[in-house]
Amino acid sequence: MAEVIRMPRMSDTMTEGVIVAWHKKVGDKIKSGDLMAEIETDKAVMEFESFQDGVLLYIGVEKGAAVPVDSVIAVIGKEGEDYKAVLAGAGSAPVVEKPAETPKVETAVAVAPSVTVTATKEVAPPVTPSNGRIKASPLAKKIAADSGVNIAQVAGTGDEGRIIRKDIEAFLSSGKVKSAQPFVNGKESFEDVPLSQMRKTIARRLTESKFSAPHFYLKMDISMDKSMDVRKQMNDYLGEKISINDFVIKACALSLRENPNVNSSFLGDKIRYNHHIHIGMAVAVEEGLLVPVIKFADQKSFSQISSEAKAFGAKAKEKKLQPSDWEGNTFTISNLGMMDIDDFTAIINPPDACILAVGKIKTVPAFDEKGNVKSSNVMTVTLSCDHRVVDGAKGAKFLQSLKRFLENPVTMLI
């Protein structure tokens, strides 16, 4: 008997999917495990495989169309089998048209130049008809435009005050134009781009977070001199590139171990305090933001964290992350230091109670123990907290732990 294929839920936040490509067409024989289609979820483009053998009898969703989860997208059965009765019983997929591309709109705008004119008694005002239109020959208009002359300032000597070529030339040679600016012929334009599945989810989840969780922010400057020295020694010794972000991830994980109140979630009628530490690492991609998760980060070495972070970053940019890669975060880090941002505040990534925003490392003047001025490398971090779970004192203690680990990185190696 023919069976309907429905849009699967491929992530916990997915509400609809877009068919990126069909790899089978109506009439093709299909075996269990064959790749049928590619589906764009809110986080990635994922492959959809068949779970049964048969012939593809019906495709209900065109390439590029978006349909809700559980909608009928295809029917598989025996060759020649009547599938319409099955469709009628299951409810066929809603008709969803592929969004039409919005044409670019361009509007020509002629901007009159600003011209300073010294008026004298010898210059008669231009003749302007009652309808406000200035009479001028096409050649006169072109010369005026090329020369940056506001033609409204020129007196015409032609029939009925019509401005002609010699009037423009006389105006230019008279010295009455102190500063003629080039004529600007600009175009206003725009392009409307439909929201991707990822951008829709980002908008929904962060709006919910911002307006449901009462945010407050704690900021702290941390000296990174010793962390930078230790990082250089480790890279020279290990022959691999461990980043400052890897140091921050490790330091956060150890700070969460010392401050379990921050490693928590607000669940409506209860607060969940997580005993495991899974660090979400925000990664910017073309369409928005993905947050792969480094699990049990407090138990991993710098090399392990670095290796996972690099792999996740590459997979995120290629949209190859799987649900298991982005699920389970208990705390999130967003680092914009590599993009030359001094400091910023981040919106909490549900279900976490906190997120750490990391700025760039800056060289600033500081005093040594003897009072002499020296240069120091300082990084500003900002902790966004959900006040329903984390109070100011709890957040401050977490930042104190983080500062201690990063300013004395040897303690992270013990």
pLDDT averaged residue by residue: 84
Percent range of helical residues? 25-40%
Which band does the percent of strand residues land in? 25-35%
Number of helices: 9
Strand order of the largest sheet: 13-22-21-20-16-19
* Major sheet description: 6 strands, mixed
Termini gap: 63 Å
As residue ranges, the low-confidence spans are 92-124
Global Rg: 33 Å
**How many beta-strand segments?**
22
Shape descriptor reads: flat
What class would the helix/strand composition place it in? alpha+beta
What does this structure look like?
With 414 residues, the protein is of the alpha+beta class. It has helices spanning 84-90, 138-147, 165-173, 197-212, 225-238, 244-258, 302-317, 323-326, 392-407, and strands at 3-6, 16-22, 29-30, 35-40, 45-49, 54-59, 66-68, 72-77, 105-111, 116-117, 177-179, 184-190, 215-223, 264-266, 271-273, 278-281, 283-285, 288-290, 293-295, 331-335, 354-367, 373-386. The protein is flat and about 90 Å long.
